[in-house]
Amino acid sequence: MSSRIYEIRRQFNRSAHSYDAHAHVQRTMSDQLAHSFIGMKKKDIMDRQSILEIGCGTGTLTEILIKEWPSASITAIDIAPAMITLAEQRVLSPKATNTGTNTMDLLRFLNADIEVWAPNAPTASFDLIVSNACFQWLSNPRQTLGQLRRLLRAGGLLIFTTFGPDTFCELHKAFDEVYRAEGMEPQRHGLTFRTTAEWNGLLAESGFSTIQNERLIQIEKYTSTRDFLLAVKGMGASTSEAVAMEGLSSRRLFASMYKEYEAKFSVQGGVAASYDLLLIQASVD
Predict the structure, then answer these.
(1) Whose CA is closest to 63, among 32, 31, 99?
(2) What is the pLDDT of residue 238?
(3) pLDDT given for residue 259 in this prediction
(4) Which domain of life is it from (predicted)?
(5) Is the pLDDT of residue 241 over 80?
(6) How far is CA 228 from CA 29, 222, 234, in A?
(7) Domain contains 60
(8) CB neighbours of residue 21 within 10 Å
(9) pLDDT score of 207 more than 70
(10) Is 80 exceeded by the pLDDT of residue 93?
(11) Is residue 144 in a domain?
(12) How many angstroms separate the CA atoms of 92 and 103, rounded?
């Protein structure tokens, strides 16, 4: 396991119990994804009996999949064992709703890295692959999408949500201003997100067809910049591409960034943070 994957797993294990309390945007994305495949289901002529969910998290989307396809075999994968535990508690506990008596027989949870697991999975083994707010973490999206294409049967669908490049644009602008004020080259704090066009290109190169997408900018409000970053950390998404720089301590960097952020992006009752939400669907002929 690479150090990057180890760190991602560690972050999501640590944040598992606080995830649902902070992941309001991911819930919006899950609802958007569910609306998409429920709409697709109404006019679908294909009986989708085998479903793969990538990055199941605490089981929010898994629960919807079970409700919509009660007779389907569902494989739900997540890299973090703590997330798997919470997802199992959500959908397999006696108190779980909208699940049939045969849910345990048809549902399989796997603690795995999709980029390691997919190459070893059988060809043409799924009718539908879904993923919510996960693909931004892929280390090798071109290779992984090619494997997912291989796993889908003829007529199969891949539907996923992820974050676009304008996510946290306020944060990046605030950091950039601080770096420039210090006479330094700006660094990226957080992930770099792909555009819709980049995802479309990767999907086409991987052999997918009929690629469709939607985009939504959602503005969230937080009481302060510090609370915003704590919420991001509570979602397990505090990975940064920045490295330490001589002459600028982390404490001074963040103190200056807080001031810049609150000076430029304050709203009534707090500060604003943008989320660039992408919904992408592709099929296999």
Answers:
(1) 99
(2) 65
(3) 96
(4) Bacteria
(5) no
(6) 19, 6, 10
(7) yes
(8) 11
(9) yes
(10) no
(11) yes
(12) 7
Site of tokens 């506990």: 93
Closest CA to 121 of 139, 145, 140, 147: 147
Q: What letters, b where the CB count within 10 A reaches 16 and e where it falls short, cover 192-210?
A: ebbebeebbebbeebebee
Q: Supply the DSSP symbol for 122.
A: P
Q: Which SS3 state, helix, strand or coil, does residue 10 take?
A: helix
In percent, how much of the chain has pLDDT > 90?
A: 69
Side chain identity at residue 142, one-letter code: R
Cα(151)–Cα(283) distance, rounded to whole angstroms? Answer: 12
Q: Is residue 175 part of a domain?
A: no
Q: Which domain holds residue 34?
A: 3-167+191-220+275-283
Phi, psi of 270 (to 5 degrees): 160, -145
Over residues 29-54, the mean pLDDT reads: 85
The first and second tokens of residue 171, run together, are: 């944060």
For the purposes of burial, counting CB atoms within 10 Å of the CB of 117, is it exposed (0-12), middle (13-18) or buried (19 or more)?
Answer: middle
CATH of the domain at 279: 3.40.50.150
Task: Look at residue 132 in the predicted model and tell me its pLDDT.
Answer: 97
